[in-house]
């Protein structure tokens, strides 16, 4: 379906002034919509091969955004769904794609990577705020739109199924295979400790690019992309946020071997988070917090590498080998986290003291 046609479902009586692609997401397609009166909106198309149950995705999004919208302290940090005149807030087209329209958080920008500890602290603060504001929402009321998402052992099983018996095609593939084999025990750490860890409403994908900053200041003012909102471990979110935001070179730099995990960004992000939601963390959460960043970076590296071996069927690519390159970055990041584990644990202990 053409995006202009999808817009007529939501806005049958409004004139659209412009429609342009927005962002560089690995999964969905997104457009910025500008109406004739200057109102800005965001149109998105979900891929059915990724989100097999779009009704569950939308039900979760509706539940969480409506909950946040009832809280006076939420400000404008979170988007809202835009329904059509009949009250419907999503459209399924003939090919199974789900279309939705969202409010646009104006005067903002996204960061592909962090440059300052101020930015890291702001992101930690906003993620903590999201966890705090949803803490009274019963996570059992949410569906699981992606069963097995962040279950690292499951991704290892997928890797094993795709890898095959043949030798790696090149040195980079061989390096990935060797490191994945070495780190197999890491995959089960969070799952085995699940009964001791805090399970609440989580964002599911709190990477750097999903936080909106003011255009004129290093101030985080919004959190977007609620497709993966679900019941889950707080450490899934913290581990994912840390592995994304504490990589100062970003997730697409040209030399994977140079990837490092920055302890200063880590300390700043956790300082911001703990100031908002530190009381939500159990003793076990605190014990495994640094490890969670290692687990999630390993998990994402396995996912990228598996998709590379499987013909790039899940994550969008613009050139051959891009998912292998992404995998190398995450696995080198994992190596950096593990090399600094004791330093990071000391920094966290000082913040918790």
TrEMBL record:
Residues 19-251 form the Aminoglycoside phosphotransferase domain. Coiled coil: none annotated. Pfam families: APH. Signal peptide: none annotated. This is Aminoglycoside phosphotransferase. The lineage of its organism: Bacteria, Pseudomonadati, Thermodesulfobacteriota, Desulfobulbia, Desulfobulbales.
